[in-house]
């Protein structure tokens, strides 16, 4: 039997060889009594030719072949004539003269053509996902995903990590995001929860004496979805005992360096830059700064604290701040109308307005300039490194609004003005995170990361006076303005964990009911431990240069958490609910 | 800083070196003013010594140390004196003279000692799983599991398989086992199902043009549990396009050969023996024969079809059969009382009784011997290869009962009589499976494997006359009497799939509602494809030489599907149910 070859892997070395090819009809052309087919398999394309002088039989069969038919051919690899060489095809100097053709399966005309890029709606693409996935960029993305998975595993295996599987049917805990619940049939009225992360299990693995654990783990959050969220997602989950924060960060740097080398052929510099959370907010208005471009926020609060411009002075006086962006050289590029649009944009983030100045002929112009003293104008020019032709944009508000609005505006302008070098992969550690976050609606503190995060040395002493100032032994890895993942050292002493639950407002009973098993486990020689979890789908999105998380997941869900291909979720038989002792409260009871 | 070493990896080459060790106190002994501690980490044990002449300070601290404390020590590796060498410890020729000791965490006295084997109840072991997992055999099992996972991946990666992730929140279909359901909050009254296997998704992956897929996939079945079942389990899931049944089986053989070599250091012969389903049932009374020992079933129906022994004759006349086991040389070992116990055993499997004969002094004795003609006795002796001293056991019944009861009896006797060579790994393919199975309770045929299994050539022609005789292009891989997994070619032609649904009693509407997406996908150029799924937990159980599936799963569930460590499943907040628009029908409505 003739040996099977892959279409895209044929080279001039195969010329003269008899090959067996199997794949899909990408395109068919009839020309001068011949039929030409671009045959596609997982490796790529090659042109096959049906010629009456070679096999009238194959030619006759080929006549019935249409796009996306599955065929098997045997034939001889030949060089194309000079004039018919196709530079756009990797195998474009070759073709296969077909001797035999079998049609393995037919195809209806696909609802869209499987070109590299297509402008069909995402809804159609998801409904016919198996067709969408046949397109080259999708094939490449999932091959990249496979390669990245293996590169990560290879690194961790070499470092003596053990890959371990944690349960999917776990206990529901009210902290964190909303759980997906799974009703128990054996214990009616009780539920499992799908894991939001294997956090507690990986800590228990450390307490079980396995020193280095990893898992490429499926996690679940029943939250309202945005473009970069999916109800089920994959994370690279890592935990180690006896390693310091530095050890863990350094190891992750080596892992990323190795992965970027293997997968993208890039040599990225290590160690990664580090920035404290407070500094990141102050300079970028973001806890995940995109450092591929500058245009940082400048805090001018001190300069304008007594300003004649009431908006500036007022913000500082009421405990907020004034920060600005210097849009270099764009004074004349932005009309008043353009700036109005930017003002509308920052309002989305709660800003009441956007003040602006233009640097022209060595002075600052614009509606607010008349309120600024010469000293203030000078101070601003110095602080913001102002040159003629620059556009300055300011938000004066409470601190969180200043950061949110200017952080978002910075990113918007960075994209609009093409300031971002898309070939860069800028990794960054953000460290020294707050331990707790205050929820104004609920009037209590929450764990900024999770309740098992180790407070920084001495932090717990601030517990009564300034809980918001407590810092955590936590670190986030940021890539190109995306949070790739976060980690921390964990609490390993039972008394500290108790204090932490207390700080979070748990009664002893509540802590015990939800986390009693953890409190107990900590009492039997829990080792010092810590780890990290990295969002794998998002990492692939960045590596593949895509901007939609759904393009990195084989069978993703829509924004309403539906699978348009299989039509999940769906109604189930009444008998299934009866077995679970459940009733639907939105339907009439039968 | 002193370099960290692993306890179990210290060798005589380290003598004289200063080392840093971190781990758990396995055991502490006080002797002649010294303290000896067996220190344990993930790599094993080493003895550390506290000596007042080396560090009175460390000795004083060591006095407070108890079992399972987590400590960090620095010290010098020295050779033990000849008389104190411990041959039971891998590092038994060495010890570490401790200079510094830090206690990293304390431990209460564990509820059981962490010896290699312990006789505590499984309930206690599961509740304190993190302690149970510290025991050496458990550590070894999960290291073996990790190694096996990587060996499988390495093989499949080299064969150009892509590792791909399929969804966990999928559509519920009534075929197969009972689904775990996940209520949707966004679509009240609708449910996802956790996958029983990624079967349809892996077929869709083939239709997406990825030619070779694998996944080490978590699967879920809400069934009543036995010792070798868990509500969530892991399977090695494999699917390929364009490969024949032979290609797939041969590849799996190479995979298993490679894995057994890497993980167990064993060279297992390939190709694996193959046996048709009908032959396996006839010779072993089982579709997963344990071929590590003989004692096969012998069908003597023809010999006794006209027998004076009514029970034999009657079974054959009513369409059943008579088969027997020859328990070689055990005639005198089994008293009448022993045989009564075996009779009780076969009754569990529906047999009405167990007939027996003993071969003594060239003739067959026993209560039924007087009913047998000389010709029959001769026939039996010949067919069953009878020698003096043999014990013959017979069941006469309908065929399924004969197989079930004698198959089980064969295994029981094999174990009791130590006929099984426990060092053997006997792989076996069972092929030519029935396509359909009749469910007597429901009065209809079911897919023996699943509704997507390709019928054998010509099988569908028997669809109206003899549906039970239709065979499938299916193959099971059996190891030492366990079903390791099963696979098949799949239906890739829409018309055949339609016929299959019809054979299974689906109306067009039912087929469409449940599998409409598959029927549609098949119309757009589905390639010929097939694959296999192997039970990974069970494979590890066999590789680790254990007999409880729970010992191969890090955090397993009990027979009532509970996690005794975290106490899942559990009740959830009323508010969670409200969001899902669910009510518990076994509680009063509030």
UniProtKB/TrEMBL annotation, chains A, B:
| Any one GO BP annotation for this protein | aspartyl-tRNA aminoacylation
Binding-site residues, L-aspartate: 175, 221, 449, 490
Is Kinase tagged as a keyword?
no
CDD domains, A to Z: AspRS_core, EcAspRS_like_N
Residue ranges crossing the lipid bilayer per the database entry: none
Where mainly found? Answer: cytoplasm
Q: Which reaction does it catalyse?
A: tRNA(Asp) + L-aspartate + ATP = L-aspartyl-tRNA(Asp) + AMP + diphosphate
What segment(s) does the record annotate as region Aspartate?
A: 199-202
Q: What does this protein do?
A: Catalyzes the attachment of L-aspartate to tRNA(Asp) in a two-step reaction: L-aspartate is first activated by ATP to form Asp-AMP and then transferred to the acceptor end of tRNA(Asp).
Query: In which family does this protein belong, per the annotation?
Result: Belongs to the class-II aminoacyl-tRNA synthetase family. Type 1 subfamily.
Could you identify this protein by its name?
Aspartate--tRNA ligase
Phylogenetic classification of the source organism: Bacteria, Bacillati, Bacillota, Bacilli, Bacillales
Q: List the gene name.
A: aspS
């Amino acid at each position: 039997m003739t040996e099977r070859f892959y279409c895209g892997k044929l080279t001039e070395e195969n010329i003269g060889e008899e090959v067996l090819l199997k794949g899909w009809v990408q395109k068919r052309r009839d020309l001068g009594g011949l039929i030409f087919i671009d045959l596609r398999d997982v490796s790529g394309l090659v042109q096959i030719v049906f010629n009456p002088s070679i096999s009238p039989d194959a030619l006759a069969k080929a006549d019935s072949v249409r796009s996306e038919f599955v065929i098997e051919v045997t034939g001889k690899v030949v060089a194309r004539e000079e004039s018919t060489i196709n530079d756009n095809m990797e195998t474009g100097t070759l073709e296969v003269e077909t001797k035999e053709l079998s049609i393995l399966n037919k195809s209806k005309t696909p609802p869209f053509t499987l070109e590299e890029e297509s402008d069909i709606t995402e809804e159609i693409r998801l409904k016919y996902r198996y067709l969408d996935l046949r397109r080259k960029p999708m094939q490449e993305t999932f091959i990249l995903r496979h390669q990245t998975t293996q590169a990560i595993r290879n690194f961790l295996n070499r470092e003596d990590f053990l890959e371990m599987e944690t349960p999917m049917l776990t206990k529901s805990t009210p902290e964190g995001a909303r759980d997906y619940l799974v009703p128990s049939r054996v214990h009616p009225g009780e539920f499992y929860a799908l894991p939001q992360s294997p956090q507690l299990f990986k800590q228990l693995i450390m307490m079980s004496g396995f020193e280095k654990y990893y898992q490429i783990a499926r996690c679940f959050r029943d939250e309202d979805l945005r473009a970069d969220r999916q109800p089920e997602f994959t994370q690279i989950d890592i935990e180690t005992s006896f390693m310091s924060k530095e050890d863990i960060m350094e190891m992750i740097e080596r892992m990323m360096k190795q992965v970027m080398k293997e997968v993208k052929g890039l040599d990225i510099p290590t160690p990664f830059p580090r920035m404290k959370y407070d500094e990141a907010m102050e300079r970028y208005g973001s806890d995940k700064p995109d450092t591929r471009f500058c245009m940082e926020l400048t805090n001018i609060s001190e300069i304008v604290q007594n300003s004649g411009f009431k908006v500036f002075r007022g913000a500082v006086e009421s405990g907020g701040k004034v920060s600005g962006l210097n849009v270099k050289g764009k004074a004349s590029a932005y009309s008043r109308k353009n700036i109005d649009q930017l003002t509308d944009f920052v309002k989305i983030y709660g800003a009441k307005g956007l003040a602006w100045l233009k640097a022209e002929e060595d002075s600052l112009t614009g509606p607010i300039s008349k309120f600024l003293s010469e000293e203030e104008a000078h101070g601003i020019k110095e602080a913001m490194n102002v040159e003629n032709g620059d556009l300055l944009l300011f938000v004066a508000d409470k601190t969180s609004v200043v950061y949110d609005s200017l952080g978002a505006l910075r990113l918007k302008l960075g994209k609009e003005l093409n300031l971002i070098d898309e070939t860069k992969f800028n990794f960054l550690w953000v460290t020294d995170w707050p331990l707790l976050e205050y929820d104004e609606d609920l009037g209590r503190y929450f764990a900024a990361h999770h309740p098992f995060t180790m407070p920084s040395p001495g932090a717990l002493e601030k517990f009564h006076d300034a809980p918001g100032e407590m810092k955590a032994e936590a670190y986030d890895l940021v890539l190109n303005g995306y949070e790739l993942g976060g980690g921390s050292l964990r609490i390993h002493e039972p008394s500290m964990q108790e204090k932490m639950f207390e700080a979070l407002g748990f009664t002893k009973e509540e802590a015990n009911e939800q986390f009693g098993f953890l409190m107990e486990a900590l009492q039997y020689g829990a080792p010092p431990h810590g780890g990290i979890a990295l969002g794998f789908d998002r990492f692939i999105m960045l590596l593949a240069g895509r901007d939609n998380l759904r393009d990195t997941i084989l069978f993703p869900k829509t924004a309403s958490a539906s699978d348009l291909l299989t039509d999940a979720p769906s109604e189930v038989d009444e008998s299934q609910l009866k077995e679970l002792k459940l009733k639907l409260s939105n339907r009439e009871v039968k």
